[in-house]
Amino acid sequence: MRNTAKITTAVLAAGALTLGLTACGSDKDAASDTSGPLIVAASPVPHAEILTFVKDNLAEKAGLDLEVKEFTDYVTPNTATEDGSVGANFFQTQPYLDDFNKKNGTHIVSVVDVHLEPLGLYSDKVDKADALKSGATIALPNDTVNEGRALQLLAANGLITLKDGVGTAATPADITKNPKNLTFKELEAAQTPRSLADVDAAVVNGNYAIEADLKPAEDALVLEAAEGNPNNNLLAVKEGQEDDPRVKKLAGLLTSPEVKKFIEDKYAGSVLASF
Which residues, if any, are the signal sequence (predicted)? Predict the structure, then answer.
């Protein structure tokens, strides 16, 4: 049985946004008490699955007491890491982390890159991107970095043209050419796969695609290229915790040959090891 604690977005996300990013009242929190277990906040798929593999197969031999907490949103893992409720998190990319720190005044830093989840365009209506009709509606994740990634994906495949240099900060306002007159529906990233019945296509993050039983390597109309992609998913901690011996042990295990083989065998190209 998986020894994880599932945390619901509805309960935690609202509280996390208002907690003021201050430490909890206890003198010893999850981050500072290095004698206790390392509690890691993670998205359920594939992050918590990878961590659970480490916990069940590698951690004990390495002398690591690992606890996994699952979160279903992209906000609470960082606020929980900032306030010390957890000692680390594993769910995000460097561009997302940089943007989050800038907007929220947090101090989260990367420890090690682990894997890439290619962003993909999916549809229940058509089987190839160029079959989208004029005026088609495409759902996009609404957070800054992932929306930019989604638009860059569409631009890379000739569906739109973007202003030069906008990168992952791109929004629909940066579209300079839209030959199919596509319209865009901006949704929380977790909602994009659920929108497929209501839109013509949706750009979905890899973890949410897998949770929705989509197979990115097979089902995506178009998929982000892995080569040169800056959007690797990483293990992160609050600044100052990088040298925690528990964190160092976990970083080594997450980039071990055993984890690489687990990723290759379980996700069959839908998740790609970054090491």
Answer: 1-23
**Residue range 121-144, pLDDT digits in tens:** 999 999 999 999 999 999 999 998
pTM: 0.74
- For the purposes of burial, counting CB atoms within 10 Å of the CB of 184, is it exposed (0-12), middle (13-18) or buried (19 or more)? buried
What integer pLDDT is reported at residue 22 of this predicted model?
Answer: 38
Which DSSP symbol is given to 47? I
Helix axes 76-83 and 94-104, enclosed angle (nearest 10): 60
With both helix axes pointing from N to C terminus, report the angle between 9-17 and 76-83 in degrees, rounded to the nearest 10.
Answer: 50
Q: How many Å is the maximal CA-CA distance in the chain?
A: 60
9 CB-contact burial (10 Å; exposed 0-12 / middle 13-18 / buried 19+):
middle
Which residue from 42, 100, 86, 35 is spatially nearest to 64, judged by alpha carbons? 35
Write the DSSP string, 90-130: EEEEHHHHHHHHHHHT--EEEEEEEEE---EEE-SS-SSGG
CA–CA dist 186, 139 (Å, integer):
6
